[in-house]
Design goal:
Blueprint: E1 9-10, E2 13-14, H1 21-34, E3 37-38, E4 42-43, H2 46-54, E5 60-66, H3 70-73, E6 82-93, E7 95-100, H4 101-107, H5 118-123, E8 132-135, H6 142-153, E9 160-163, H7 167-179, E10 185-189, H8 193-197, E11 204-207, E12 226-227, E13 238-239, E14 245-252, H9 253-258, H10 260-268, H11 273-284, H12 290-303, H13 305-316, E15 342-347, E16 354-356, E17 359-361, H14 363-375, E18 379-384, H15 387-395, E19 401-407, H16 410-413, E20 417-418, E21 423-432, H17 437-449, H18 452-476, H19 487-502, H20 515-549, E22 563-566, H21 570-576, E23 583-586, H22 589-597, E24 604-608, H23 609-617, E25 624-640, H24 647-660, H25 662-671
Parallel strand pairs: 1-3, 2-4, 8-9, 8-10, 15-18, 15-19, 22-23, 22-24
Antiparallel strand pairs: 5-14, 6-14, 7-10, 7-11, 12-13, 16-17, 19-25, 20-25, 21-24, 21-25
Helix pairs in contact: 1-10, 1-12, 10-13, 14-24, 14-25, 17-20, 18-19, 18-20
Amino acid sequence: MPRSHAATTINMARPTWDTGWFQAEVYRELLTQLGYSVNAPKTLSNEQFYEQAAAGEMDLWASGWFPLHNRYLEQPDIAGTVEPVGFEVPDGALQGYLVDKATAERFNIQSLADLARPEVLAALDSDGNGSADLIGCNAEWACAEVIDYHLQEYGLNDVVDHRQGDYAPLMAAAIARLRQGESILFYTWTPNWTAKELPPGEDVVWIEVPYASLPPGQKALESETVMTGITGCVADPCTLGFPRNDIRAVANSEFLAAHPAVRSLLEQVTIPLADIAAQNALMLSREGDEDDIRRHAQDWIAANRSTVDDWLATARATGEIAPSASPEPAATPLVPPPLDPVRIVTQRFEPFVIYEDHEYQGFSIDLWQAIARELNLPYELVGVNSVAKLLDEVERGAADLAIAGIGITSQREARLDFSYPYYESGLQVMVPSDQSELGKLLSVVGAVLRSPRLYYGIGILILILLIVAHLLWLSERNHNSEFPDGYLHGIWEAFWWAAVTVTTVGYGDKVPTRAAGRFFGLIWMFSGYFVFAYFTASIATTFTVQELQGVINGLEDLPGKRVATVAESAAAEFLDGQTNLLFRNYNTLEDLYIAVEAEQAVDAVVYDAPVLQYFVSHQGQGKYQVVGDVFKSLNYGIALQPDSPYREAINAALLRLYETGQYEDIYQAWFGLGQG
């Protein structure tokens, strides 16, 4: 349904090519200074804009290209309802085809017709599909129709691939190829950042079309495709294949009739092509944020203040009394205030959540209070004892959200929604800062007894002794009473002999009597030095390794140690994925700290770095230390029910806290330095 043009809020559009957004912001600011309220420009394709402008859903934009856009004005449902007004950039917008200068000179490329030559085609075929690659227009742009017509008209469809998609990244990739010494062919227009990045005549050249030809409906303009004085063209005059275009504002005719001051302003505004090109260059040099573009427009108006004031004075002289632009309405909460306070669950998680004197405080609590003020949101805060309970309360709908120091993980994201991250953290290792000599000894002995290396060495020794015992018994059993014929008794005596022989304890209580037995015994005596040396070395190595590893300096030293963390925490999820670590879960952080204080129960704790650091600097000062680097990057967020109506509101409030500096103030109050 068309909206009333008596309304004083103007609906603007802007094109899908961002090189026209600067002009949109200039017009928006000028209309605001004229006294109108102007909505932020809405990005529309050509066809969308002209259709919505004809329907009265959109009032104007500053991106009409004529004669290129004549075909839209001639459509039956648009004709007579929409009109161009003024000449923003008169007779200055060029379009055409360019080739990098080195390739053009090497192959003497003068026009599109040269693309059919095999050597030229091969040079411009970047993907090896047998066709020259032409970076062209987005499919919804009017220029795409002309390019397709040219390729057909000049018989190039089989040798040229019209590459369409998102123009900016396609061109960025082409420029990167050029910088690496490859050849490129592309369409462009002015004003556009490509002319700044690749100046015609220096890096690239305009090439001609074989002869002037335009699609039906534009035939009368064919003579205008031949121009003189085109910098960087291979010829003068130059047949670019496109007529010069005027860039003009386009508006709904009824809207213009209802607002003569707007018509007057649009008729006067001109923006030099060089100024648009300069702004496009700023966008390319990392000043392409919405705020940057808006600032560029304001700076341009300030630099042309005298001219702008004349435009505004002339527009006001039409006699229309434009309403004063009302101030921006106060931001309203993104969610209506609930009938009951929002129920929030939290958990002690110093320094993010601290419970003292029957009150909650801490970084996360202060941050939430600021969010609630932004949203004018009443709430009640309820404490729980465990991470599992915290998340379960939200998941089953008993609470609207949870805040503490809740790490955003893939497992949790599958169950819940999260706000934007508000704190970047990670995991770290905490160990006792000092142990008694007895404690260290017991720790090493315990680690040795738990070490697979010890039992591997003992097993190998027993296996060798059994093999030796069997060989000796088989040799002596029928001729030597000291090695009885009965298997169990005889093997035991032979095993005893092998053991005392290899340990050099003695050889006299049992001796082989047969020549084969004595020969084997002699070999065993000498071999025993090496076998027993291997065994003792294995045991000694185990003790040495465990003693060296007794000092825990980080994550890599945890295998074989008694590691602990809190159940269902991000640390527990991480440890569960480590195949070489065994660990114990404690239900709550308090239970974990009790186990730590018991000394013998835990060798190391893995948990959130800021929580461990806070514990070490307070309750554990002088007794514990945090070691190693922070690992497993972790972001904290506010946990919400899936599809929560509060999520977008909370995210918007968080962004406002960042933008206004309130977040940094809260951070400084608790941590004393920025996050960087």
